[in-house]
Amino acid sequence: MPFHLDLSLMIMSNDEFVLVNIHVLHHLIAPNPILTLCTASVFLAWGRSAVQISRHSFETVRNSVLHYCQPKALKETRDFTICASVLYSHPSKLVMNSVIYGPVPSWRLGRSLGVDLLSTQGKTCNFNCVYCQLGKTANPVRERRVFIQTAELTQELKSVRGVAADYVTFSGMGEPTLASNLGQAIELARDILHLPVAVLTNSSLMSREDVCDDLARADVVVAKIDAHNHDLFKQVNRPVTGLLFRDVLKGIELFRSGFKGKLCLQIMFIEANKDFAREIAKVASSLSPDEIQLNTPLRPCAVKPLTRSQMDSIQKHFNNLGNVISAYQTARPKVTPLDSNETSRRRPKL
Ligand code: SF4
């Protein structure tokens, strides 16, 4: 008798809880012996899309399946063991997604090879910007932690040595400074790929010394600022409770005073903040950036982009602040991503 069985198990693997969803299709096909197909997806409780499972957790999964699956015929078939062995032997093919994506054509950084140090299933961020191309924040997080182990990142970086790119850019499924191993990851990326390193940050944690220390290892830091006061900050960026606009500003100021690399301010203009360009320009001026990047959401999202002429009018408030670039005026290079699925997950439209 054919049967389907879906299991959801919460198991302990080393020091992490792992949610395992297992779908078993057990089918008797005469005259062949029992054919059992088993697919397993392993999710961290945090929402990481897939992780390499350890031998310990593999054994736990296997034993759990064998314990719960009925009828007993399944226990006796070697096919399940074979399928599961494949899963263990080739985890990268079956259960892992890449931490690296792109290269993508960036109007600010040229050919940008992305590193997603979060790589979560949904967006992990302490903001929920109204214009976010990744949709609603799935994992609203305020504390830093390690999402991707350094060993895993090292392996992936080594596998893309020689890729033609202008920058390695830390960005992806949320706010990269939430990864507490960001500083170490920046050094690794530079050492392995011999490319300059950029970080795109929402600036929320720059008032923290450990975050500034991490960001200071990058060649370029692109810091977001979309408002001139807390009310507009809340309306546009919708931060988690407790994040204050004045602390964000202080953080950028503090970082600026010690940073030897290139500090860019990125400002996203939409309907909600377009009438405050003059005030935002004043704030930008006080932060002494090396470059100001005026943006509007040209990729699909919940709000409409401003028109070219609206952006031109906004730019007039910034022109006396030095090096200013705008999304409508800057060409993007042609690039082909290594893996279009991994890339479109983080960057819905190139
Ligand atoms: S900070 Fe970036 S990732 Fe976070 S919600 Fe805003 S646009 Fe999206």
Report on this model:
By secondary structure, the chain is of the alpha/beta class. The chain has two domains: 3-94, no CATH class; 100-346, TIM Barrel, CATH 3.20.20. The protein has helices at residues 55-68, 73-76, 78-89, 91-94, 150-159, 182-193, 209-215, 230-237, 245-258, 277-286, 308-315, 340-346, and strands at residues 3-13, 16-28, 34-44, 100-106, 110-115, 124-125, 139-140, 167-170, 197-201, 220-224, 262-268, 291-295, 324-326. The strands form three sheets. An eight-stranded mixed beta sheet has the order 4-5-8-9-10-11-12-13. The chain has a three-stranded antiparallel beta sheet with strand order 1-2-3, with helices on one face. It has a two-stranded parallel sheet with strand order 6-7. Helix 6 (182-193) packs parallel to helix 7. It binds iron/sulfur cluster. Iron/sulfur cluster binds at residues 123, 125, 127-129, 132, 134, 137, 174-175, 202.
Topology:
Blueprint: E1 3-13, E2 16-28, E3 34-44, H1 55-68, H2 73-76, H3 78-89, H4 91-94, E4 100-106, E5 110-115, E6 124-125, E7 139-140, H5 150-159, E8 167-170, H6 182-193, E9 197-201, H7 209-215, E10 220-224, H8 230-237, H9 245-258, E11 262-268, H10 277-286, E12 291-295, H11 308-315, E13 324-326, H12 340-346
Parallel strand pairs: 5-8, 6-7, 8-9, 9-10, 10-11, 11-12, 12-13
Antiparallel strand pairs: 1-2, 2-3, 4-5
Helix pairs in contact: 5-6, 6-7
